[in-house]
Amino acid sequence: MLGVKELINRFRHNRGYGVQSPNAFHFVTSVLKEKHLYYSYPAIEKQAKSGRHASYCKRLFRIVNYLRSPNVVMLAPHKAEAFAVTAARRNVPVTLLNTTGNNLAEVLSDNGTLGLLYVGKCNNYASIVEEAMKYTSSHSAVIVKGIYSSREKELWWNGIKQNPSVCVTFDLYSMGILFFDKKYKKQHYTLKM
User: Fold this and answer.
1) What distance, in Å, lies between the first and last C-alpha atoms of the chain?
2) Model pTM above 0.70
């Protein structure tokens, strides 16, 4: 549950206010808050069914489209989330894993480095992300769904932000995004989305 301080902090960073880094500001204003229509939006809305989930999937589509990752691994995605990611990266291999993620190391070792990892609703998110971080590069990203879905996951999220290999994080409440590019100063952004 969000407190008053957290709500004020989220409002302060709404639409990029208070984001000092030019790259982070561009990411907030041109990707996360973008209002343009994309060719895949009607199909994403049809897959998602509800308006809130459609909005989430459209945001996921824009993020994946912006990142242009050479490979994508998705762990336990909803059907609409998988559709949004594959629509954004049509010519890129997208590997779908079940909720256990037992073969994650095998998939990542075949790819060499991790492009993008999307972690949907699963119980072993912590071990999955820690395993995936062994294969990250400066162009890698990890998206974790529902970082406030439980107190345990919220504590894990606050801890993973402090990991030395994580450089920039975005807390969108419905999802958390981790970036690993060492040329950027360690920064954590909390946005109202």
Assistant:
1) 15
2) yes
